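Data's thin. Show one?
=====
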Amino acid sequence: MFLHELASRAVFLYTGIDEREKEVEPQVKKLKRLFVGIGILGLLSGCGKNIPAIDPALLQAKSSILVVTGQEMPDDVKTALQTALVNWRDKKQTAFEWMDNTTALTEEQLSKIKTRSYDYILVAGHNLVQNTLPAAANIPERKWVMLDDQLARQSPVVSGSNIMVKLVPEDRFRKEWSEWVSLQLDNGRAIEWVTTSAYPIPSEWAPSEEAEYINLADAEGWYTQFQFQVNSHGPAWIAVFAPLEAAQLQRLKAAQVPVINMAATGIELQWGGILASIEDMMAKKAWTPGIQPYSDAEAKINKNL
C-alpha cells in the first residue's frame, strides 16, 4: 500500500514538472530568438563600419582586355603573358579574356568582340596582325593594339583612329646595319649588293658612282650580270638587302663569296618592356593610333652575323 502511494506521488510530480516545462518552453524560445536577432543586428552594424569604400578613381580606372594570340607564340611567352595578366587582375582589377591558337578571327569571335565592352584588344603575332587589320577597321568602337613580331620592311596601311600597330620599321633596320656597312667601306672591303626594285639600297651605303655594285634580282637575266660583276669587282661580301626566294639565295652562294643576308634580320620582342608600356598606357588612359615603333626596351634586333 505504502509503495503504491509513493509511486503515484512520483508520477504526479514528474507530470507536473513536464507540464510546467511545456508552459515555459515557448517563452524560452521567444527569448532565444530575441537575443539572436539582437546579436545579428549588432554584428551587421559592426561589419558595416569595417567595409572599406571603393575608391571612385580605382573604379574609373578599371579596364577590360581581350588578348588574341596565334599558334606560333612560344610557350614561355604565353607563360609570361599569363603571369602579367593575372598580376594586372589582382593588383589593378583589370579583367581579361584570352583567345589562343587563333589564325584569323571567326564570325563567332567577331560577334563576341562587338557585344563585349573591351577597352583594349591585344593582337600578337605577324600573321595574326595582318589577318586582323581589316576586321579591326570594321569595329571602330574597340581600341586595337597590334603587336607585330616581324621586321616591317614595308609598313602596313592603318586606317582608323582605333588601331595602333607596334612594329620595328625600316628606319631602325637601316640604323642597326649602318655601323657594319660603314666599317666595311672604311676598311676598303667592297660589297656586292643584291636587292629588288622595291627595296632600293640606301644612298649612303652605295653612292651613285658605285651603282655597278648593285644587282636587281627581279630583273631579267640578272644572275649572269651578277656573276660578271662579282668576277670583276672581287668583293669581300655579297649583301642581300631585299627578301629573296630560297633558290635565289642558294645561287648566290655559288659565287664562293661570304653572303650576308640582311633581309633575314629578325626581331626578338621584349615582353617585359611591351607589357610595361601597355600597363602605363592603360593607367594614363593614353591612346596614340597608327604606326608606333617599338622602343629599345620593347624589341631587340637580331642581325644574324
Remarks:
- The two ends are 122 Å apart (CA to CA).
- Confidence is low (pLDDT under 50) at residues 1-26, 28-61.
- The first strand starts at residue 64 and ends at 69.
- The longest helix spans residues 2-50.
